[in-house]
Amino acid sequence: MAAPQDDMFSLCVDPTKVSSCVEVRFIDKIKGKGLFAKKAIKKGDTIFIERPLVSAQFLWNSLYKYKACEFCLRALETAEDNARRLSGIPDLSLPHPELCKVHPELHQACPQCQVMYCSNECRQAAADQYHRALCLGTSQEDPNHPISKLKDAWRSMHYPPETSSIMLMARMVATVKQGQLTVLRTLFTTALYDDHLNRWFTPEGFRSLFSLVGTNGQGIGTSSLSQWVHACDALALTSQQREQLDSFIDQLYKDVEKETGDFLNCEGSGLFLLQSACNHSCIPNAAASFPSNNFLLHLSALSDISPGEEIGISYLDCCQCDRSRHSRHKILRDNYLFICSCPKCVSQMDELDLTSDEEEEEEEEGGEAEGDDMEDEMTDV
């Protein structure tokens, strides 16, 4: 059941201000609801900031020692520790360490299971919301605990890279297609069943819950190193100092790429009430980011937005948005179960149907540009 209109703004920072700026409208039976501007919004403006209804770090990401707060997903490593691990250089020292906003002295562990939080506030919030039911206590390392089995089953069906929400969704669809949903539902029931929640444990209820996460989940990325780099960019330096700092950061990126590759950030996903009202567009006028190094989603305008205009985000990454209409439709149809009718797709209706495989061959022939974009990807959390 859809959330009431007032509830759609309940998890936003300053919901009264946000509700005066945007509204959720029903469009039609195919698209459902959408988010629309009530006032003029300028390019670069933050439209709203929202915390998730629920969020979680990806399981492989956690297993590979990407340390994040169990509640808000804030990166727990200092920027320097993060840089050392990612680069494989144990004695690396970052200039301007005072720019790191991670405070290990504030971190707290659950007294029972020892999972870590960035603060007492997050530990208490997690306990109040869900952790009492999920805390493994002294069974945290027991592979035979039902929740441990559930996590292992999920990992076996969802291999890295988990950084792509599209690939995550593709694997969820494949799980249903191949009949593995029954396995997950059985383990889910064993771990969490309660009589008053029984409707979520029926095959139909679990499928609905699974679909809700699959179609509305938003990827979350946090990084103390990225936050430190952004802070360095804002420093007032002489030309020589700027050149030296940029040279250091460039070399750090190269070392990280060599040692770690694409696995750079603490990664997870969350369900956001208001953000979930944003429909896809292949020419989006808004984008989500996580500049606070936690699960707070910032939706910002990519272009000027007029009153009454729909606010659209892209479910595709930048490279996928640049592909042919046929390829974009294939990705969206396979993973999100809809056919896009945004202005870009409508304008390209008469184009030849170039297949994804053909485009991938072209990309392989072009091939060297991908590495040039790595710095932007590392800092664009």
TrEMBL record:
GO cellular component terms, A-Z: cytoplasm
Annotated localization: Cytoplasm
Entry-linked InterPro entries: SET_dom, SET_dom_sf, SMYD5_SET
EC number: 2.1.1.359, 2.1.1.372
Catalytic activities: L-lysyl(36)-[histone H3] + 3 S-adenosyl-L-methionine = N(6),N(6),N(6)-trimethyl-L-lysyl(36)-[histone H3] + 3 S-adenosyl-L-homocysteine + 3 H(+); L-lysyl(20)-[histone H4] + 3 S-adenosyl-L-methionine = N(6),N(6),N(6)-trimethyl-L-lysyl(20)-[histone H4] + 3 S-adenosyl-L-homocysteine + 3 H(+); L-lysyl-[protein] + 3 S-adenosyl-L-methionine = N(6),N(6),N(6)-trimethyl-L-lysyl-[protein] + 3 S-adenosyl-L-homocysteine + 3 H(+)
Ranges where the SET domain occurs: 20-316
Enzyme class: transferase
Biological process per Gene Ontology, one example term: methylation
Domain of life the protein comes from: Eukaryota
Predominant localisation class: cytoplasm
Name of the featured protein: Protein-lysine N-trimethyltransferase SMYD5
Source species of the chain: Oncorhynchus mykiss
Source lineage: Eukaryota, Metazoa, Chordata, Craniata, Vertebrata
Gene: LOC110537870
